[in-house]
Automatic annotation (TrEMBL):
CCA-adding enzyme C-terminal domain residues: 295-439
Subunit composition and interactions: Homodimer.
GO biological-process terms attached to the record: RNA repair; tRNA 3'-terminal CCA addition
Native organism: Haloquadratum walsbyi J07HQW1
InterPro entries hit by this protein: CAA_C, CCA-adding_arc, CCA_tRNA_nucleotrans_2, NT_2-5OAS_ClassI-CCAase, NT_sf, NuclTrfase_I-like_C, Polymerase_NTP_transf_dom, tRNA_NucTransf2
SUPFAM superfamilies referenced in this protein's UniProt entry, alphabetically: Nucleotidyltransferase (SSF81301), PAP/Archaeal CCA-adding enzyme, C-terminal domain (SSF55003), PAP/OAS1 substrate-binding domain (SSF81631)
Domain of life: Archaea
An example molecular function term from Gene Ontology annotations: magnesium ion binding
Protein name: CCA-adding enzyme
């Protein structure tokens, strides 16, 4: 390392790597020209459709392609049509779909808070979204109404050097697996990434600051003073002081940014900018068996057909379901090491246990004998129970050793008891249809569909 290559900042090696990364991710002149041409064609087509409607509306391009922060190869264009704030909601939806279907005739109607059209135009993926033209991001009639205000705020603050730093940070977050505000990833959104670079000046500034974060962290670009947020990272939306832009970020991904920021500052490498999904090997059955023998644990997996819902609905339900199962198993005396969820055509609730079986009895400790009323109730409840050992006195309390309800975790998961654990609604419906419980070596049956997921489970990294 050179003299200035320290953990306190960027040296020549850091900058050389960043230049190499930029060579790969900065859109070239031809790509920028194509983007401008297609955007102009879209504007013209949309304008023609607006003129045929009995209402005033305008067009605004939003998102990374509007602010120059898109990465080479990205072909996504977001076009918003803004309608008057007093337009009836049903009419806005009708006009939005009319325009969208005319401009993108082979597109699909998608539904968020209200419908919009997504499709392909001259090789670019286009979202054409109707919204209300509101005066401020805090005066919303629908969630998408704030997006043009995001655009206005950032366009005056992002020049070419800032845009270049945003692209580098986006690629870094992709490389460490922390980019994307979808509810599967729960990482950093494009808008949040831009705000962080604007706040801290450049890529180096973000990494140096993140390396020193001590959650909870609050960033308030416009000094609004925030509403109460119970999140590890709070970035107050400069266009809407009630909103935390980082609300979706999981503590894991915030910690992941901290970890890799420190790693890159101390020992720069281009590998931090390569997505882990590009390098994850698919684990086969024999390697899984080797890990099971080495670990000596008892994994179980609940396997079922994935519900036909979008990822932003599926993954929160999978997380709720696995947490419900974990809590129930621990309440029954089964020690859980770690859990995971996998999803493709099938979905998996994966639980690794210290042991699959528990003894036939469990210890149940009563109140202190000195607490006469409660202690007497406890004693009376068990004194005639022939299925328990006790009550007896241990130190200052009554104790019984009673029969355990479940001695086999797999039996618990195969029983109707699984439906009492607080499953996600559509996960519960899928399990009610049919599901399979795999135990121990049987989980090798998951490798054809989930070999990469098992690699990430059994060979975890930061």
């Amino acid at each position: 390392m050179t003299e200035d290559d320290t953990g306190d900042g960027f040296g020549s090696e850091h900058r050389m790597i960043i230049e190499q990364v930029r060579d790969q991710i900065d859109p070239g002149a031809a790509e920028r020209k194509a983007m401008r041409q297609v955007t102009a064609q879209l504007r013209s087509r949309i304008t023609t459709e607006i003129e045929s409607l009995p209402v005033d509306a305008d067009i605004i391009q939003v998102g990374s392609t509007a602010r120059g922060t898109w990465l080479a190869g990205d072909r996504d264009i977001d076009m918003f049509v803004r309608f008057p704030a007093d337009l009836d909601r049903e009419v806005l939806e009708e006009y939005g779909l009319t325009i969208g279907n005319a401009v993108l005739p082979s597109g699909d109607e998608e539904y968020a808070e209200h419908p919009y059209v997504t499709g392909t135009f001259e090789g670019f993926e286009v979202d054409l979204v109707p919204c209300y033209d509101v005066d401020a991001g805090s005066e919303l009639q629908s969630a998408v109404d704030r997006t043009p205000h995001h655009n206005r705020y950032l366009q005056t603050r992002i020049g070419e050097s800032t845009a270049a730093a945003v692209r580098v940070l986006k690629q870094f977050l992709k490389g460490i697996g922390a980019y994307g505000s979808d509810l599967r990833t729960r990482g950093f959104s494009g808008y949040l990434t831009e705000l962080l670079v604007v706040e801290y000046g450049d890529f180096e500034g973000v990494l140096k600051t993140a390396a020193k974060w001590e959650p909870p962290i609050e960033i308030d670009p416009k000094a609004h003073g925030s509403a109460a947020h119970d999140d590890p990272l709070v970035v107050v939306d400069p266009t809407d002081p009630t909103r935390n832009v980082a609300a979706v970020c999981s503590a894991t991904n915030i910690s992941r940014l901290q970890h890799y920021a420190r790693q890159f500052l101390e020992e720069p490498a281009q590998t931090y900018f390569t997505s882990p999904t590009e390098t994850t090997a698919k684990m086969d059955s024999e390697v899984v068996r080797t890990h099971l023998q080495r670990r000596g644990t008892s994994p179980v997996a609940v396997v079922f057909d994935s519900p036909d819902i979008v990822d932003d609905q599926l993954y929160p339900q999978l997380r709720k379901s696995i947490q419900g199962i974990r809590t129930a198993l621990e309440a029954e005396g089964f020690d859980v090491i770690r859990t995971a969820t996998f999803a493709d055509d099938q979905a998996v609730l994966f639980i690794e246990l210290m042991h699959r079986h528990c003894p036939a009895i469990e210890r149940h400790t009563g109140p202190p004998i000195a607490v006469r009323e409660h202690a007497s109730e406890f004693y009376t409840a068990y004194e005639s129970d022939t299925h328990t050992y006790g009550p007896f006195i241990d130190d200052d309390r009554y104790v019984v050793e009673r029969e355990r309800t479940w001695t086999d975790a797999a039996a618990f998961l195969r029983s109707e008891a699984i439906f009492d654990v607080g499953l996600g609604a559509q996960i519960e419906e899928a399990l009610a249809d049919t599901y399979t419980v795999l135990i121990e070596d049987d989980i090798t049956a998951l490798t054809p569909e989930f070999g990469e997921s098992l690699t990430r489970y059994f060979e975890p990294t930061a």
